[in-house]
């Protein structure tokens, strides 16, 4: 771009070149310092891995999922539009990290997503006849394979540099909590208290975090559990459409232990930094005060059938609302794109106590 001759030669740059520098600076500040985003987690951030798992019904690559996604496409996202992984990618200035199982690259130099709908910390969570998912341990296995390829391609020092600047986003635990309250699981877990269960979850997560650290991960975005007991699926089970407070209490318990675990990890390692997003109070406030956020419907799902549209998941046989922007929930467990946008805004640029010890923007700047 050439400076216009009508501008005094003393000025640092012309309007157009200044604009160029300004945009370049913003791009640098906002995005260029993150080479890659690695996403690990469940359906809240699955961008299509489950499409590639054969013999499983745990998929969302059919209508009316994706009705508000560019092109109205059902991509495998459990959402009406873009999900939290897409929105975070946009903030960071990188394209959405593509599904690892898509094999669209062997190195995924700008990141990849291992996230898989239905998954949890326990290998057994979400698995069953016709139900298959990538547990978080399995996702870390896949990352281990990818990291070895990166070392081969970039060299040990190159891979170390690349990974130390990358973001590792971890969104997991909801399905493990759902599983604890699942009647089919109740007998098996009869003697496991909520405290013990949550302790086991955290112990598995801690082991996986240490594994990620040993492979070079240094910057983590840890997403806490939301008010799971207030999802339409749980209100459906209540005569009065109330939240399941036992489930909510387990989510809070998990979040408290996750916070302590991360603080411990940081003091152990001395070379990690992280953002912890306390999803619970943020989502709960949206549900309690929907109009404050521009929502009209806090209880019912947009897509489904039956009471609160929470009797079934969103399939072509279900009905869906015309006014998705009014709804907090897309289906009986997943938020709408509108809700995800609010949540990711807090992750990216929010303040304590909702994001601690720093937000994602500050984490990136380190
Ligand atoms: C991806 O590669 C793996 C290993 O080579 C193979 O088993 C799998 O079928 C491939 N998946 C796709 C979607 O091409
Ligand atoms: C869970 O699966 C991973 C492999 O994906 C395996 O390494 C680990 O041992 C399994 N954990 C348990 C408790 O079976
Ligand atoms: C990043 O983490 C290290 C220890 O892991 C700590 O010494 C440092 O203060 C952290 N940076 C910020 C900005 O918190």
Automatic annotation (TrEMBL):
Q: Where is the signal peptide?
A: 1-31
Q: Which InterPro entries match?
A: GDSL, GDSL_Est/Lipase, SGNH_hydro_sf, SGNH_plant_lipase-like
Biological process terms from the Gene Ontology for this record are:
lipid catabolic process
UniProt-recorded name of the protein = OLC1v1022666C1
> Which domain of life does this protein belong to?
Eukaryota
**Pfam families reported in the protein's UniProt record:** Lipase_GDSL
As for family, the record states: Belongs to the 'GDSL' lipolytic enzyme family.
Gene Ontology molecular function: any one: hydrolase activity, acting on ester bonds
Q: Which UniProt keywords apply?
A: Hydrolase, Lipid degradation, Lipid metabolism, Signal
**From which source organism is this entry?**
Oldenlandia corymbosa var. corymbosa
From which lineage does this chain's organism come?
Answer: Eukaryota, Viridiplantae, Streptophyta, Embryophyta, Tracheophyta
């Amino acid at each position: 771009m050439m400076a216009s001759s009508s501008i005094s030669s003393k000025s640092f740059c012309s309007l157009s070149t200044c604009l160029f520098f300004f945009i370049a600076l913003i791009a640098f500040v906002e995005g260029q310092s993150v080479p890659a985003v690695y996403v690990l987690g469940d359906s809240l951030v699955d961008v299509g891995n489950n499409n590639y798992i054969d013999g499983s019904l745990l998929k969302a690559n059919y209508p009316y999922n994706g009705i508000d996604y560019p092109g109205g496409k059902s991509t495998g996202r459990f959402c009406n539009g873009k999900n939290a992984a897409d929105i975070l990618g946009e903030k960071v200035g990188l394209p959405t990290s593509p599904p690892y199982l898509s094999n669209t690259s062997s190195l995924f130099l700008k990141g990849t997503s291992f996230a898989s709908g239905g998954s949890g910390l326990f290998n057994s969570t979400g698995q069953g006849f016709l139900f298959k998912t990538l547990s978080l341990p399995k996702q870390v296995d896949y990352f281990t394979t990818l990291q070895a390829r990166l070392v081969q391609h970039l060299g040990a020092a190159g891979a170390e540099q690349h990974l130390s600047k990358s973001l590792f986003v971890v969104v997991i635990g909801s399905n493990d909590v759902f599983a604890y309250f699942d009647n089919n699981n109740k007998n098996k877990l009869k003697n496991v208290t909520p405290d013990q269960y949550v302790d086991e979850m955290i112990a598995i997560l801690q082991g996986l975090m240490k594994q990620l650290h040993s492979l070079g991960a240094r910057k983590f975005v840890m997403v806490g559990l939301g008010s799971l007991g207030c999802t339409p699926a749980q209100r459906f089970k209540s005569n009065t459409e109330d939240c399941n407070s036992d489930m909510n209490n387990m989510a809070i318990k998990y979040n408290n232990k996750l916070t302590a675990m991360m603080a411990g990890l940081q003091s152990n390692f001395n070379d990690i930094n992280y953002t912890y997003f306390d999803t619970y109070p943020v989502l709960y406030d949206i549900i309690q005060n929907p109009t404050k956020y521009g929502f009209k419907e806090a209880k019912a799902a947009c897509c489904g059938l039956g009471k609160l549209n929470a009797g079934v998941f969103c399939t072509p046989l279900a009905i869906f609302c015309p006014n998705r922007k009014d709804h907090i929930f897309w289906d009986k467990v997943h938020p709408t794109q509108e809700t995800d946008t609010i949540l990711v805004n807090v992750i990216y640029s929010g303040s304590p106590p909702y994001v601690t010890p720093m937000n994602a923007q500050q984490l990136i700047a380190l």
